Amino acid sequence: MMRKYLLATDGSEGSRRAAYFLLDLVREASGFEVTVIQVVNVKKEIYNYPLLTNIPEIEKFVQEQAGEIVDETAVIFENEGIQVNKLVLDGDPGHEIAEYARQENVNQIIMGSRGLGNIKGLVLGSVSQKVIHLASNPVTLVK
């Protein structure tokens, strides 16, 4: 039976550690599928740019940045000859990760315990907490 792994990334060091954790899990395995996902909330990202900036340009830029992060993460697996599905979604990260995992019958979600958007000292990042709360699939957090 095919095991499906969903690796959530945001380009942070924690996400990178999660990628290597998953690589160690699948390196000698067979019958698995790895999907690397990043979810960006384009509507929230627009507020990080000056008011007079062209909104479609911001959306395109944010999507391209997310795609580059997914590509950089996928290379970790591709360098080992492991094929990876790459996915960038728009929306609330915690919700979209949990929903995608449910729809695709993912066996395990793997992600860093804290990402880029978190204040030092928090035990878990807000996206990690939301995924744990919403997901019906097993979730592995990597420190």
Description:
With 143 residues, this protein is of the alpha/beta class. The chain has a single domain (11-142), classed as Rossmann fold, CATH 3.40.50. It is 43% helix and 22% strand. It contains five helices and five strands; from the N terminus they run βαβααβαβαβ. The chain has helices spanning 13-26, 42-45, 55-78, 93-103, 126-134, and strands at 3-8, 32-40, 84-90, 108-112, 139-142. It has a five-stranded parallel beta sheet, sandwiched between helices. Strand 1 (3-8), helix 1 and strand 2 form a beta-alpha-beta unit. Helix 4 (93-103) runs parallel beside helix 5. The longest helix has 24 residues, at 55-78. The protein is globular. Mean pLDDT is 89; it is low at 118-124.
- Class derived from helix and strand content: alpha/beta
Shape: globular
Q: Approximately how much helix is present in the residues?
A: 40-55%
Estimate what percentage of residues fall within beta strands: 15-25%
Number of helices: 5
Main beta sheet, described?
Answer: 5 strands, parallel
Mean pLDDT: 89
Tell me the count of domains.
Answer: 1
Unreliably modeled segments: 118-124
Quote the CATH topology: Rossmann fold
What's the number of extended β-strand segments?
5
Distance between the termini: 29 Å
Helix and strand element order = EHEHHEHEHE
Looking at the overall shape, the CATH architecture is: 3-Layer(aba) Sandwich
- What is Rg? 15 Å
> What is the CATH superfamily classification?
HUPs
Strand ordering within the main sheet: 3-2-1-4-5
The level 1 CATH classification is Alpha Beta
